[in-house]
Amino acid sequence: MTVFPKNLLVYKAKEGFSITEEDLKCCLSDFAFVDCGPSDKAKTGWLSPFSTEQMYHCHGNQDFLLKYCKQERKINASAFNQMLTRTVSAMEEEDGRPLNKRQKDQIRDELLSDILPNALPVNDYINLYIIESGKYIAIDSANHNKAETVLALLRKSLGSLPVIPLLGDTPAETVITEWVRSGETPAGIVLGNSAKLKSILDDGPIIGVKSADLSSEEIQAHIAHNAMVREVGIDFQDRVAFSLTDGMQIKGLKFSDEIKDQNEDIPKEDVLARLDADLALVFGEIKTLISTVFSSFSKAK
Q1: Whole-angstrom Cα distance, residue 232 to residue 208?
Q2: Is 233 helix (H, G, I), strand (E, B) or coil?
Q3: Is the terminal CB of the chain with fewer CB neighbours within 10 Å at N or C?
Q4: Does pLDDT of 76 surpass 90?
């Protein structure tokens, strides 16, 4: 179990909106996760982050951790379609006529109901961080669709969730391209050695570089010929490293040993205390990223 995120998508709430501990205490239990039944293909819901009775974990008075779970019975689509084709062909041969769409759909549903109870369920967990009573919400995912699914459950749980992706005034691709072109970045932000570039032309190739000097003539030439930086590696304050995309996704987030070692003095058997202490570090770093990295896009001209 870890509270350190690997990816982050950050959302900002409408001014005046807030989430309190009382809101979570009252609303989350109605949407608690329940395992798939024999005929269920998928189930979603909230789990206790720290395997306690509470469906959330409160750090301080304004920061909360939630744990989303999706359980899905995985069926190999290719194998299932082959089985469906064989079954339909056999029935058509037996009847001496082609089956219509309604009949094929009925066969598909019957096959699915037979297979589902024996399909092994797979769980997918996503942590959600509520920051400053909901002023910001950060989700441990680099996939916008997955993040929106988690937000949809929180919106359904609370009854309202007026949030939008946290974006700047200037398109992110414009800002990070200028960082790479000029080599000048805001204080605390150091460019790494990886990037993805793409030509502004619709059929232009995507160029990925790793372990490279981003100030090299080759990279600068691509930018000079109308390539935009779509993703760039960043080392932030020697504390966290990640890739930042033109969609404001933080991917491959790695916390430094300096951060992770801060709580080594807490006994390993005191699991909850260690998790809470680690969570305090996580909230602190997310807030710093928001106030420093994300704000750079609003200030860029």
Answers
A1: 10
A2: strand
A3: C
A4: no
DSSP element (H, E) containing 38: none
| pLDDT value at 300 more than 50 | no
Asked if the model's pLDDT at residue 298 lies above 80, the reply is no
Contact 162, 16 (CB under 8 A): no
CA–CA–CA angle 137, 142, 147 (5° rounding): 50
pTM of the model: 0.86
Parallel, antiparallel, or unpaired for β 63-73 and 227-236? unpaired
| Residues 124-176 pLDDT 10s | 999 999 999 999 999 999 999 999 999 999 999 999 999 999 988 889 999 99
End-to-end CA distance of the chain: 42
Q: Is there a contact between 189 and 241 (Cβ–Cβ < 8 Å)?
A: no
